[in-house]
């Protein structure tokens, strides 16, 4: 009730319960839906065809789209497919409005990625309940998206503090996914490697400049402090669901097969594969880029060095040789001096 009062005084969408885009070419139906939803506190925009729907979503993404099945220009199914294919709009819930309850229609809708269905004539209670629950879902995914983007900007802030690591996160994401793809990993696993590449060093936000940027060798205490970035980083990822598969990468990318790494001194297979992958490409990037403590190496030197590391038990030999093959076949782009 309070929100309704607010809505009267402040009709702006920001104070509504959510924004709903109604895509309906039948004016009578559009009016009915508008009346039901505005009475419940939603801010509503109405468009009459598929192309206008895509334009409206592009202009101002709504919380929910109510999409008529039969539309001029593009059908509801086509609009739905396009929204679900686009990375920037795929999390907007789409409800298909159908006159028929035919099974084939639903199947086509599910295949197009529709989140829900409503059959005409509408039951007002059902309509309200569905829109409310989808707006809640949308708010939840918005929060997750936001939390993840905050952590990613933290990671980029860390990188910006150190001029010599410019582009490090991006390169690691690129190398790690290229190696993962060569190993036949799934889309989800590749997505985690991509995020892991960006976030692996996010914990360095907690390391003072005097240590992080020190040009010479670190003292024992400083090195101990530096090692903490793995634990701080894992903590920063918190319990964000989308980051659960990334946490092992953040914590364990400095573990080494022979047990000589940190923070847990894990050995062999106890080190998650994703963390081994990021560990290898992190070492490769450190070798090929200039660091405060040493000059840049050529590509051949980098290959030799990484192979020597694998021989001495730091990295898995097979993983290293697949990665070097990927680099050799130019399946990844290298920074200029090392290519
Ligand atoms: Fe690290
Ligand atoms: Fe790193």
Task: Write the SSE topology.
Blueprint: H1 2-9, E1 19-23, H2 27-39, E2 43-47, H3 50-59, E3 64-68, H4 76-85, E4 94-98, H5 103-111, E5 116-119, H6 124-161, H7 168-182, H8 187-199, H9 209-212, H10 220-227, H11 229-237, H12 247-252, H13 273-288, H14 299-311, H15 317-328
Parallel strand pairs: 1-2, 1-3, 3-4, 4-5
The structure holds fe (ii) ion (2 copies).
Residues 200-201, 229, 253-254 line the site of one fe (ii) ion.
Describe this structure in words.
With 339 residues, this protein is α/β, with parallel strands linked by helices. The chain has 2 domains: 2-141, 3-Layer(aba) Sandwich (Rossmann fold); 162-338, Hypothetical protein af1432, CATH 1.10.3210.10. It has 15 helices and 5 strands. Helix 7 (168-182) crosses helix 15 (317-328) and helix 13 (273-288) crosses helix 14. The longest helix is centred in the middle third of the chain and has 38 residues, at 124-161. It is elongated. Mean pLDDT is 86; it is low at 1-14.
Summarize the structure.
By secondary structure, the protein is of the alpha/beta class. It has 15 helices and five strands.
